[in-house]
C-alpha cells in the first residue's frame, strides 16, 4: 500500500523520506504539489493510475520504475484528488512504491470531512482512502536521537543501566543530566539540533525556534478561517500558563475571559490535527485497558516540542542550563512536557490519573498488557503521596518515577533518570 506520512511542519518528514528514497531506490521522483498547478491538473481528469504515471513521467522527464523508483508526493494536502488517487494505486497498481506527506495533512483531511457533512459541501473534497494506505506519524527528535547526534557513546550505558536497574557511574550520570538540560533548550526540531551540533551556539538555536514558531502562526492564517485563526492562536499562546498551574488540567478561562469550549474547541482540534500539541486525557481508574476509563472532558495539553515551549516562554539558556535559576513551576512544566513528548515518540499514549482532586499522577500509560503509572519530578526530591495513593488503589505490576536521581528499583518503583525516558517502551 502507499504510505501517508503525518507530522508537524519542520519535523523532517520531507528530508527523511527523500533520504530514505536515495538510499533504497535508484531514483526518487519528487512531486511537490505546493504552488504547482501543472502537477495538480494531472489529477483533474480522472484517477487512472496508468495515465497519472505517464503524465508525471512527461512532466518530470523521468521514468518511474515499479520497483526501482520511489514516487514521493509532497505537500499532498494541496491536491485533494491526489490523496484519493492513493486508493486506486493500491487497488490497480500496487507495484508502484509511493510515499505521500504533508505538513497540514491532518488539518486538511479533517476540514474536508467536516465540509462533506455540512449542508453545503465544498467541491473536490477529499475521499480518504480508508484501508488502502499505511499511515505513519513523524515527531520531533526524542532525547535518544539527540544523543545519537551529540554524544552517542553514552547511549549503551544508559540502556544497560535501565534494563538492569543499576546506577550509572556518577560522573556519567551528571554528564547525562547536563545533556538533558541542554535538550530542554534545543528541543528536538532537527534544524535546531543541527545548529547546536555544528555551532554549539544557543543564540542560533533560539533564532531557528522563533522562525519555526512564526511558520506555525503563518499556517494558522493559511489553513484556518480568520475567526478560527484567532481562537487557535489564543489557545496556543495559553499553553505555557496552563502548564505553570499546580493543576495542569487545560482550562478555557486561561485562554481568555470569554473563551468557552463550545466555540474554542475547533481551535484545539486544529492544533491536534496539525501535530503542534499533545493531548493527555484523564482516566477515572488506573485499570487495563485505559481507554475504557477515559474522561474526554478533562485533559492536559502539551506542546509538541519542549524546546519550542521554552522559546515561546522566552526562558533563557542560563535559566534552563543552570536549573537552580528556574522556578519550580517552570521546571515542572518543562519536565512534564518533555516526558509527554518522549512517551508519544515511543508509541505510548499518555493519560493522567486524578482522585477527587486529592491526588494526581502525572502520566499513566499502557506498557504491554499493564497500566503503568509514571510520576515526574524535575529534581532529586522524589516524595509523592499521589503515586503511593495510586499504588495502594490499583497495585500495578510496577511503577515508574522519573527524576534527577540515578537508576534503581525499590518497593515496586523503578527509578528512571530524566535522561532515560526514551528507554520506557
What does this structure look like?
The chain has 425 residues and is α/β, with parallel strands linked by helices. 45% of the residues lie in helices and 18% in strands. It is built from 16 helices and 13 strands. It is globular.
Question: Quick gist of this model?
Answer:
The protein contains 16 helices and 13 strands. The chain is α/β, with parallel strands linked by helices. Helix 9 packs antiparallel against helix 10.
Major beta-sheet overview: 8 strands, mixed
Low-confidence stretches: none
Radius of gyration of CA atoms, rounded to a whole number: 23 Å
The total count of helices amounts to 16
Distance between the termini: 27 Å
Q: Determine the structural class based on helices, strands and strand pairing.
A: alpha/beta
Going across the major beta sheet, what is the strand order? 7-6-8-9-10-11-13-12
Strand fraction equals: 15-25%
Mean pLDDT: 93
Identify the overall geometry. globular
Tally of strands? 13
Q: Please estimate the helix content.
A: 40-55%
Q: What is the helix/strand order?
A: EHEHHEHEHEHHHHHHHEEHHHEEEHEEE
Task: List key phrases describing it.
alpha/beta, 45% helix, five-stranded parallel sheet, 16 helices, 425 residues, globular
Helix-strand layout with pairing:
Layout: E1 3-6, H1 13-24, E2 27-32, H2 37-41, H3 49-60, E3 69-74, H4 80-92, E4 97-101, H5 105-117, E5 134-137, H6 143-150, H7 155-164, H8 170-186, H9 190-199, H10 202-222, H11 226-244, H12 261-273, E6 277-283, E7 294-303, H13 306-312, H14 317-321, H15 328-345, E8 351-355, E9 359-367, E10 370-376, H16 385-394, E11 399-403, E12 408-410, E13 413-417
Parallel strand pairs: 1-4, 1-5, 2-3, 3-4, 6-8, 10-11, 11-13
Antiparallel strand pairs: 6-7, 8-9, 9-10, 12-13
Amino acid at each position: 500500500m502507499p504510505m501517508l506520512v503525518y507530522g508537524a511542519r519542520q519535523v523532517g518528514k520531507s528530508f527523511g523520506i527523500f533520504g530514505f528514497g536515495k538510499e533504497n531506490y535508484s531514483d526518487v521522483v519528487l512531486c511537490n504539489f505546493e504552488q504547482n498547478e501543472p502537477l495538480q491538473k494531472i489529477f483533474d481528469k480522472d484517477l487512472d493510475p496508468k495515465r497519472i504515471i505517464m503524465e508525471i513521467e512527461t512532466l518530470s522527464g523521468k521514468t518511474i520504475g515499479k520497483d526501482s523508483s520511489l514516487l514521493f508526493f509532497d505537500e499532498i494536502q494541496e491536491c485533494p484528488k491526489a490523496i484519493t488517487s492513493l486508493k486506486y494505486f493500491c487497488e490497480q497498481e500496487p507495484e508502484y512504491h509511493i510515499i505521500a506527506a504533508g505538513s497540514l495533512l491532518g488539518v486538511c483531511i479533517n476540514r474536508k470531512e467536516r465540509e462533506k457533512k455540512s449542508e453545503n459541501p465544498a467541491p473536490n473534497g477529499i475521499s480518504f482512502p480508508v484501508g488502502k494506505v499505511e499511515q505513519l506519524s513523524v515527531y520531533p527528535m526524542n532525547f535518544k536521537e539527540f544523543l545519537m547526534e551529540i554524544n552517542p557513546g553514552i547511549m549503551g550505558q544508559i540502556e544497560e543501566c535501565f534494563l538492569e536497574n543499576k546506577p550509572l557511574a556518577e560522573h556519567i550520570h551528571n554528564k547525562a543530566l547536563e545533556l538533558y538540560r541542554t535538550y530542554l533548550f534545543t528541543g528536538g526540531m532537527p534544524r535546531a539540533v543541527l545548529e547546536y551540533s555544528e555551532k554549539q551556539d544557543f543564540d542560533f538555536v533560539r533564532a531557528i525556534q522563533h522562525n519555526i514558531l512564526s511558520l506555525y502562526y503563518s499556517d494558522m492564517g493559511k489553513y484556518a478561517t480568520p475567526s478560527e485563526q484567532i481562537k487557535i492562536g489564543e489557545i496556543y499562546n495559553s499553553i505555557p500558563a496552563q502548564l505553570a498551574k499546580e493543576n495542569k488540567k487545560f482550562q478555557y478561562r486561561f485562554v481568555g475571559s470569554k473563551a468557552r469550549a463550545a466555540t474554542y474547541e475547533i481551535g484545539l482540534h486544529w492544533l491536534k490535527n496539525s501535530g503542534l500539541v499533545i493531548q493527555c486525557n484523564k482516566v477515572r481508574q488506573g485499570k487495563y485497558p485505559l481507554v475504557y476509563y477515559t474522561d474526554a472532558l478533562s485533559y492536559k495539553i502539551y506542546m509538541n516540542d519542549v524546546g519550542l515551549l521554552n522559546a515561546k516562554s522566552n526562558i533563557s539558556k542560563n535559566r534552563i542550563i543552570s536549573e537552580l535559576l528556574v522556578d519550580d513551576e517552570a521546571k515542572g512544566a518543562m519536565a512534564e512536557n518533555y516526558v509527554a513528548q518522549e512517551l508519544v515518540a515511543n508509541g505510548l499514549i499518555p493519560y493522567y490519573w486524578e482522585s477527587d482532586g486529592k491526588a494526581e499522577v502525572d502520566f499513566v500509560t499502557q506498557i504491554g498488557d499493564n497500566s503503568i503509572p509514571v510520576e515526574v519530578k524535575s529534581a532529586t526530591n522524589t516524595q509523592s503521596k499521589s503515586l503511593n495513593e495510586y499504588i495502594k488503589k490499583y497495585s500495578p505490576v510496577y511503577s515508574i518515577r522519573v527524576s534527577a536521581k540515578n537508576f534503581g528499583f525499590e518497593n515496586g518503583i523503578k527509578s528512571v533518570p530524566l535522561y532515560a525516558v526514551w528507554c520506557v517502551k
